[in-house]
Amino acid sequence: MKDVMAVIRLNKINQTKAALADAGISSFTATGRVLGRGKGMVDFRILKGAEAGSPEAIDQLGNGPRLVPKRLLTVVVPDDKVQLVVDTIIKVNQTGNAGDGKIFVLPVLESHRVRSGEFGDEVLD
Amino acid sequence: MIMIRAIVRPEKADAVLAGLMDAGYPAVTKISVYGRGKQRGLRVGDVHYDELPKELLLTVIQDTDKDFVIRTIIENARTGHVGAFGDGKIFVTPVLEAYTISSGVREE
To answer: Could you point out which of A32, A60, B42, B53 has its C-alpha 20 to 30 Å from the C-alpha of A80?
Structure first.
């Protein structure tokens, strides 16, 4: 069992949901809005202002941490479906620009179904 | 690769983020969460608060950087010299795979 965590753009959430459903992965958890930064650390408003030559924007360039809002998806799947989930998320979310997000795959030891108390891989179906 | 999940005081989150940036770890995700710890929340007079606001910071790093990053977070998240109850916790989880969506590349 693996936990696939994906940090993606806000506006891609609906397409990602649809694509995952089409791929047969119906269950996942989405966290409201998370804030994050990657290696790029780009704030586009400041960047635009700086390109237009505004001195205030130029002063703020590269000054302090800028956090960009993202959505965080958590999908717990059996081992053999990990690659399918990763490929689906990459296919839908890839625009080729910095800021598309990251995917992490973490191990999960057990999952339990609260309704019936059963546990194991069948809980995920 | 490992994932560091740090639960810190909201007012200390910016200091931790700045500390990580200076230490060369720019990539972080921040989530607002509510929780309680061993002290069962906070009691002020007759009022008992058992869900205190915290910030959850997620960062994925190489195994070799673990101790340095944990030390950086602790130094910045602590209140006062010796720390206080409610300063937070740090959890470390293994990460099996990581992908950058924009390039589709699997990170090593």
So the answer is: A32
Compute how many other C-beta atoms are within 10 angstroms of the C-beta atom of residue A25. 20
Contact A85, A105 (CB under 8 A): no
Q: Say yes or no: B92 contacts chain A, CB-CB below 8 A.
A: no
Q: How far apart are the first and last CA of chain A?
A: 12
Q: Write the pLDDT tens digit of every residue in A99-120.
A: 889 999 999 998 888 888 888 8
Question: What DSSP letter does each residue of B20-70 carry, written as one string?
Answer: HHHHT---EEEEEEEE--TT-SEEETTEEE--EEEEEEEEEE-GGGHHHHH
pLDDT in tens, B6-58: 999 999 998 999 899 888 898 999 999 999 988 888 888 899 988 999 999 99
Q: Does the beta carbon of A35 lie under 8 angstroms from any beta carbon of chain B? A: yes
How far apart are the CA of A87 and the nearest CA of chain B, in angstroms? 9
pTM, rounded to two decimals = 0.81
**CB neighbour list of residue A125: distance below 8 Å, 6 or more residues apart:** none
Model pLDDT for residues A77-104, shown as the tens digit of each residue = 999 999 999 999 999 999 888 888 999 9
Q: Could you tell me which of A105, A102, A103 has the C-alpha nearest to residue A38?
A: A102
Residue in chain A nearest B97 by alpha carbon:
A105
Distance CA B103, CA B108 (A): 14
Instruction: Give the tens place of pLDDT for each residue, B80-94.
Output: 888 888 899 999 999
Query: Is A97 near chain B, with CB under 8 Å?
Result: yes
